[in-house]
Amino acid sequence: MSANYISAEDSKALKAICEEILGIEDLILLENEKLGWESKLSQQQLNEYIPMLSKFIQLKDIMILSISEIGERYKLGFFNCFENIEDLVKLVQMLFEDSDRRDTLVDILQQRV
């Protein structure tokens, strides 16, 4: 197997790991509530101020999305958190076998300037 390919099984495992890591955030919020501390920022504001969190959430989801779902999310601006679109392109190339559909998505992603 090529080191440049992520299998469907590995993709699901990576998503599960990401979910576990994101679960820690929920635990922290729960503990903060018990202590009476609440953030004055909404989840959307937190995502804007912490771009890495948004990117991590999208990365988790990408692991199990289809090519068409990734394309739709891209059109909706979900991947604006990727400052270097080539990172997203490489991930798509590792997740999906070489095909016309993958090439079309890569072309669409690379058109962003």
Automatic annotation (TrEMBL):
Give the top-rank taxon of the lineage listed in the UniProt record for this protein. Answer: Eukaryota
Domain ZW10 C-terminal helical: start-end pairs: 5-105
Supply the name of the protein: ZW10 C-terminal helical domain-containing protein
Organism listed in the record: Smittium simulii
Q: Which Gene3D superfamilies match?
A: 1.10.357.150
Any Pfam family the entry gives = ZW10_C2
